[in-house]
Design brief:
alpha/beta; 8-stranded mixed beta sheet; 3-stranded antiparallel beta sheet; 9 helices; about 25% strand
Length: about 350
């Protein structure tokens, strides 16, 4: 593996990254050397010599070139950090990311990697790697899961599929940590190789999604399609004071999740000031507790509170939705106790939705 760091000039970064590309799969040619990309919900129509909204997929001589052969950020995390709470609890996940994003959220907590080609302050390091390198790292670290995260994985799906094909052949499981701005085409492309999909449902207001360059309807459609296609889905809402923390909005989010499936775990997580919102307030503990209560009232059977470990009582734990028996006890990202037996509650034997082995 070879390392390099980004230069201060965004042009230099783009020039370096343009060398680590291949012709993409998730696009179609249109006319006069224009192409249409469908890796994400923007469905960018890209002219010759131009790039898409994500800034990492670009048109060169009538062909769409996409990121390939590098990673920015490689580390072993607890699977609970992604967060997945119903996927192999206590397991390690080999996590890798790339650069770029199709959104530009002011409160992004991964902005160093996601906003590299938009923000000169970002200085994300990069490792030149092969798919085999990453799979071997996962195997050596004892990680049964390999996860595309840190930036928006949908826009680098060709590279993820290259890795996941090999990973699956070696017995590894695969996951995305995504904003959910998908398309039916990218979901179909990923389906043979990807099992677990965490989606950020950031708000239930169109205007809030417009602030960071997204559309609420696309994310809702993606969540519904993922569930329909058989992916294991968990949803995260970062609860930001004054942005998406009203009872009404939380109730709308919870009601939507329950309408897709009451068994989709919903993680309501605490905001901390970051990126362009360093003067904003932290999310109070009581707000997360209220959100969890609203979730349960709306029929979501598994609601968790995160980002303030040890401060939200039982809201880090998993309980049987039928008899309320403690199934998994957690503190932060650590599993203290796992009492699930053969995928079911040990007391009433009700199957617990998730992937347990």
């Amino acid at each position: 593996m070879k390392s390099f760091s980004n230069h201060s000039a965004l042009e230099s970064v783009a020039s370096i990254l343009s060398r680590y590309t291949v012709e993409g799969t998730l696009y179609e040619k249109t006319h006069d050397d224009w192409v249409r990309c469908y890796a994400c919900g923007h469905r960018c129509k890209i002219g010759p010599g131009k790039d898409g909204i994500c800034k990492v997929r670009f048109n060169h001589d009538g062909k769409l070139f996409v990121p390939f052969g590098y990673a920015s950020g490689i580390q072993v995390d607890p699977i609970e950090k992604k967060p997945f709470y119903h996927v192999l609890p206590g397991s390690k996940a080999l996590s890798f990311g790339m650069l770029g994003c199709d959104y530009h959220c002011d409160y992004c907590q991964n902005w160093i990697t996601s906003q590299t080609l938009r923000d000169a302050e970002s200085q994300a390091p990069v490792e030149i790697v092969t798919a085999a390198d990453l799979v071997q790292l996962a195997l050596r670290s004892g990680s049964p899961i390999i996860t595309s995260t840190y930036n928006e994985p949908l826009i680098t799906s060709e590279w993820a599929v290259e890795i996941f094909k090999l990973a699956r052949s070696k017995g590894l499981r695969t996951a995305y940590v995504s904003n959910g701005n998908g398309t039916p085409e990218v979901i179909e492309y990923l389906q043979p190789y990807l099992e677990f999909f965490k989606v950020d449902l950031k708000s239930f207001q169109k205007k809030n999604y417009q602030q960071f360059g997204g559309r609420l309807s696309v994310v809702l459609d993606t969540i519904s399609l993922l569930k329909q296609k058989g992916f294991w889905v968990e949803i995260v809402t970062l609860v930001v004071p004054g942005f998406n923390d009203s009872d009404n909005e939380l109730r709308e989010i919870a009601g939507f999740i329950a309408s897709v499936s009451p068994d989709i775990p919903w993680h309501v997580t605490a905001f901390h000031p970051d990126y362009k919102m360093t003067n904003a307030d932290y999310t109070p503990r009581k707000t997360l507790q209220r959100a969890a209560e609203i979730g349960r009232e709306c029929g979501v059977r598994f609601v968790y509170a995160g980002n303030i470990p040890g401060m939200v009582g039982s809201l880090e734990n998993t309980y049987c939705p039928v008899c309320n028996e403690l199934l998994i006890e957690r503190t932060g990202f650590h599993v203290m106790k796992n009492r699930i037996v053969n995928g079911a509650c040990p007391k009433c034997l009700t199957p617990t939705p998730g992937v347990w082995g």
